[in-house]
Structures are given as C-alpha cells and as structure tokens.
Amino acid sequence: MIEQGEQPQISTDNVVTGELMKPWQLPWQRMPWQLLCRSFKQQNLAHAFVVEGGEGHATTDFVTVFTQLLHCQQLTSESEYPHSQQPCQRCHCCRQIAGSVYPDFKIVELLEGKKQISVDQVRELTNFFQQSAHGQGFRVLLIKDAELMTHAAMNAILKTLEEPGNNSLLFLQTNHPLSLTATIRSRCLKLSFIQVNDDEVISWLNSFNDNHLATDQLRQLLLMSDNHPIKALSLLQTNALETRSEIIDKFYACLSSECTIDQFLSTSKEADINQLWAWIGQEIMNKGNTAIRNSNFRISLSTLYFSLQKQLFASNHVDKWTLLREFLIKSIANSAILSHS
Ligand SMILES: [Zn+2]
Q1: Measured between alpha carbons, how far is 108 from 87 in angstroms, rounded to an integer?
Q2: How far, in Å, is the centroid of ligand 1 from the Cα of 70?
Q3: Which end of the chain has less neighbouring CB within 10 Å, N or C?
Q4: Which of 65, 123, 60 shows the shortest CA–CA distance to 89?
Q5: Among 192, 235, 195, which residue's Cα sits nearest to residue 217?
Q6: Is the dihedral angle over the CA atoms 235, 23, 95, 145 positive or is it negative?
Q7: DSSP state of 10
Q8: pLDDT tens readout for residues 168-190
Q9: Ligand 1 center–CA 86 separation, angstroms
Q10: CA 277 to CA 268: how far, in whole Å?
Q11: Is 60 exceeded by the pLDDT of residue 9?
C-alpha cells in the first residue's frame, strides 16, 4: 500500500527550462516512484522492469531521475511521503546522468532510419551489464520502445534476465507491453504510467494554465493527446485548441470547395503534420460531429483515412504532406459523387 499524503507544491520551472521532469511532481508517476524508492531503501529492488508508457508520460525522465537517485552524493528526503527520496540534481553524478555521459547509465533506442532495434545493439549492452560498475552502485540500462527489438534481440535480453549481473537494473520502456515475449514479461516487474487519474492530471495541467482555459477545455486537450499528459501540456503551451479550431474550420471549407486545397495547406503549414493528421482523424471518427451529416460520406472518409494511415505505418519514406493532399483530393471527389447520388 502506498501512503497518500498532501500533494507537494508543483513547480513549473522544469518545463520552462527544459530540465528533467520530477516524478514526485507528476501525478501519474508518483506511485511507481514511491514503489522504487521504498524498494531501494529496503534493498530489495527487482532487477528488471517493464515501463508501460511513452514520452507523453515522461518515462525517460523517470528512469533518468531514478538513476540519479541511485548515484546521488547528496540525497534529500521528501517529507510528504515517508519512503520517497530525491536526488539533488546538482552534484557531479546527477549532472553527468542528466547529460547522458555517466558510464553506468546507458540508453538504447531505435537508430535513425531503422525500423527495429537489432541484436547487435542489444549485445553491446549485455556486455555493459557484465562489466563492474564504475562508481559504487547500480548499472542502469534503459531500452526505449522495447517492442521494436527483433526476435533475436529479445532472446539476447532474455539471456541477460536469466543471468543478471550484480546491481544491474534493466528498464524496458514500451507503449505496447504485450508485444514483448511472455517470458520477458514474466521476468520483469511492471510499472504502469498509463493508469492516469484524469482529475489529478487536469489539476496538474491547470498549474501551467496561463491562458485560463476552462476545465472542460483542459479535459479536451488531454483527450486530444490520447491521455498523454506531457503531450497535453505541449498542446496547452502552444495554444493548440485555437489552432485546431481554425484548421478544422478550413478543413470543412476545403471539403465543401469553399477554399482550395492549397489554401487549406497554407493555413496548416505551421502545424505539426502528425498532429494535423490526428486531428483530422478525430474529427472523422467523432460520430457526434454534426459537420459531416451524410453517413455514407463519413464512411468513405474513414475508409480513405485508414487506407492512407496504413501506408504511413508501412513506410518511413512516405511524405505526409503529399499523403494529406491525396486524402483531400479523393475526399472532395467522393463528396461530389455522393452529393449527386
Ligand atoms: Zn546529486
């Protein structure tokens, strides 16, 4: 049972300066943080974890700050929670870990242009696991998007899990834990970051709410970000609700030929293409949306959207703006056909 206490005061400094997010300030990280702190204090840390969540949950920061805790030279106690401690984030070790240059902390991630994490990448790190730690304490390895490991890479990891070195900690971060083999999962303790209490996250978001958005609007941001709090924060800070509303108005104007495709694309060119693509998808899927009244047209839009989405997933080389243009051309053509049928 994790002890509940008064909520610590939330600082907005780390977001403004781009520093590491602090797990004890994030509602969705507080329980896993306390669990790890307590196990560390009681010297019964598991040696492998599946971290369920992604960058939208600040999972890399979580593992980095925990590594700081393991190596910090000036630990402080947090009075709100009996088992929770904090790294100073200023000492030599803390700074090296934050800068990813600490010899006992390694991160493995997908290499640019690759679709999978290879067995060679994983083998390099199993060697790291067999060496002794440079400092006193733990060697920590984080594999990001662990579901992207090849079958051979997963087997190599499994071998490491079967013969863990002393004081080695492995974190497998993934949004899709079921994509890891059952044997790997059975040897890891799961830390879930997706069990988010909406009200707590809304209250956290509200501490950054300089534009005084209403609670419902904050909730909409969380929904738009698929319940990824850090993404919701980024949407809040970029005034995304207003941008979204302008872009979606223009999208409908484009579908009904009130503006040209070029005009729509020029309105949207400042937006992130992935975000834009997601917004259009949400708009089409929303059955309560009265802007698309003709159900046949909605079905044709969804079918087209998903077929293009498949192309996006299948290749890293598809230009997303070209695909969006194709989507609009075909949608407008369908719209004309359906309105005459
Ligand atoms: Zn420190």
Answers
A1: 23
A2: 9
A3: N
A4: 65
A5: 235
A6: negative
A7: P
A8: 899 999 999 999 999 999 999 99
A9: 9
A10: 11
A11: no
Report d(CA 301, CA 281) in Å as an integer.
Answer: 9
Q: Are 104 and 137 in contact (CB under 8 A)?
A: yes
Choice between 282 and 313, residue whose per-residue pLDDT is larger:
282
What is the distance in A from the centroid of ligand 1 to the CA of 116? Answer: 35
Q: Compute the distance between CA of residue 49 and CA of residue 166 in angstroms, rounded to an integer.
A: 16
Q: What is the β-pairing status of strands 76-77 and 85-86? A: antiparallel
Is 48 or 242 the better-scoring residue by pLDDT?
A: 48
Torsion sign (Cα): 35, 39, 45, 46: negative
309 Cβ partners below 8 Å, 6+ apart? 277, 281
Ligand 1 center to 92 CA (angstroms):
7
3-class DSSP assignment, residue 105: strand
Cα of 339 to ligand 1 centre, how many Å? 66
pLDDT at 83 over 70: no
Give yes or no for a contact between 89 and 23, defined as CB atoms under 8 angstroms apart.
Answer: no
C-beta of residue 225 within 8 angstroms of C-beta of residue 198: no
Compute the average pLDDT of residues 35-50. Answer: 92
Sole residue written with tokens 């403004």:
16
Give the tokens for residue 296. Answer: 């046949």
Ligand 1: centre distance to CA 63 (Å): 15
Distance 25 CA to ligand 1 centre (A): 18
Tell me how far the alpha carbon of residue 58 lies from the centroid of ligand 1, in angstroms. Answer: 20
Supply the DSSP string of 240-291, one letter for each residue. HHHHHHHHHHHHHHHHTTSS-HHHHHHHHTTS-HHHHHHHHHHHHH-TT-TT
Specify whether domain 13-195 bears CATH 3.40.50.300: yes
Report the length, in residues, of the chain: 341
Beta strands in the chain (DSSP E): 48-52, 76-77, 85-86, 105-108, 139-143, 168-174, 189-192
Residue with tokens 């400094």: 13
- Please write the tens of the pLDDT for every residue from 128-138: 776 665 656 89
